[in-house]
Design brief:
This protein is of the alpha/beta class. 33% of the residues lie in helices and 11% in strands. The strands form 3 sheets. Strands 1, 2, 3, 9 and 10 form a 5-stranded parallel β-sheet that branches. A 3-stranded parallel β-sheet has the order 4-5-6, with no helix packed on it. The radius of gyration is 18 Å and the shape is globular. The structure holds zinc ion.
């Protein structure tokens, strides 16, 4: 079985364009609490992932980012404020990048994800800036089209976007792109995380991601609030409510299904293993292989044990998976 990439967009629950106009002035971020379900799964099944960290999170919770890194996960960049690239000009985006890179300087991030996948041909200048600031790979392109994002017609597998048209592969392109996974089935069906993880039936997810991994590594993403039902439900229009809250209480079992059925590693390490990244000292920022979780002294993130996890109402189906171990990864990168 192929090894795939799992990533977590580390941001606040209000970094969601569908809530922007309805946010209360005084709001609790509940940030550490929101991380407990996702860490319970990563720890219980010994999975390492890439965390695309918002600069504002690194500024407010540096100890959390440090602990994530110490636990063997890759730290990558999710810009500073979660402003969409479409709403910025080139200089404003460069300021965001510089600010984030200062905050993440201890981790030498080599990967980037645009807030809400807002990289398309209108914002293709971002490719040059990512190259200029030392990034080696990007994971912002969703080969679909919806009202918020998408680059329809972009390759569904890993490629190098052309500076002139990011939906076209250019062997000399400066940045490796790992698009979010879609199932090509007449049209590209998004299946790779977030709302799609919450909304799609578990069996369809398992089947469709299984189809993808027969051809190429899958690229799966999760936000902490995709599986944590703690944020206050806001009064928002029906479509915003659906996209924001639907399926939060059943998504944890789907994440557990994914990490038990498929093998994952951090994105930088996976691209490195595929010999797609240039060889230089920056690559060492991404752990080459998944490694054991080290003990957490005075943890910044309260670990949630699997038994606690099982008591959570959001996790009825975890019992079904709790006895299964994670599939080991062989030398060749396949699962045994
Ligand atoms: Zn985000």
């Amino acid at each position: 079985m192929r090894v795939n990439a799992l990533s977590i967009d580390l941001e606040f629950w209000w970094c969601n364009e569908f809530l922007t106009d309805y946010l209360p002035c005084d709001r609790e971020d509940g940030f550490r609490e929101s991380l407990r379900p996702v860490f319970a799964v990563l720890d219980a099944f010994d999975v390492r992932a890439t965390f695309f960290v918002l600069g504002a999170v690194a500024e407010q919770y540096p100890e959390v980012v440090s602990e994530i890194h110490r636990s063997g996960h890759e730290i990558a960049c999710h810009a500073y404020s979660h402003r969409l690239l479409y709403t910025m000009n080139r200089d404003e985006f460069e300021d965001e990048l510089k600010k984030s890179l200062e905050l993440l300087a201890d981790y030498n991030p080599i990967g980037f994800r645009a807030p809400s996948f807002s990289l398309n041909n209108r914002t293709k200048w971002a490719i040059d800036l990512l190259d200029k600031h030392g990034f080696k790979y990007d994971s912002s392109i969703f080969p679909v089209k919806n009202r918020l994002y998408g680059v329809p017609g972009a390759p569904v597998g890993i490629y190098r976007p052309s500076r002139d048209d990011i939906s076209i592969h250019d062997p000399d392109g400066p940045i490796v792109e790992f698009p979010l996974s879609v199932l090509p089935f007449g049209m590209n069906i998004p299946i790779s995380g977030g709302f799609y993880l919450r909304a799609l039936p578990e069996r369809f997810l398992a089947w469709s991601i299984g189809r993808v991994v027969t051809r190429r590594p899958a690229n799966i993403y999760v936000h902490p609030h995709d599986i944590y039902p703690g944020p206050p439900p806001l009064k928002v229009p029906f479509i915003s409510r659906l996209i924001t809250y639907h399926g939060v209480r059943t998504s944890l079992e789907k994440l557990i299904m994914l990490v038990t059925r498929f093998s994952f590693m951090p994105m930088g390490a996976l691209l490195d293993r595929m010999a797609l990244l240039p060889r230089d000292e920056l690559i060492s920022a991404a752990p080459a292989i998944p490694r054991e979780v080290v003990g957490r002294d005075n943890p910044a993130i309260l670990p949630l044990s699997m038994s606690e996890l099982l008591q959570q109402p959001i996790d009825a189906a975890a019992r079904q998976y709790a006895g299964r171990g994670r599939k080991p990864i062989s030398e060749r990168g396949d699962s045994r």
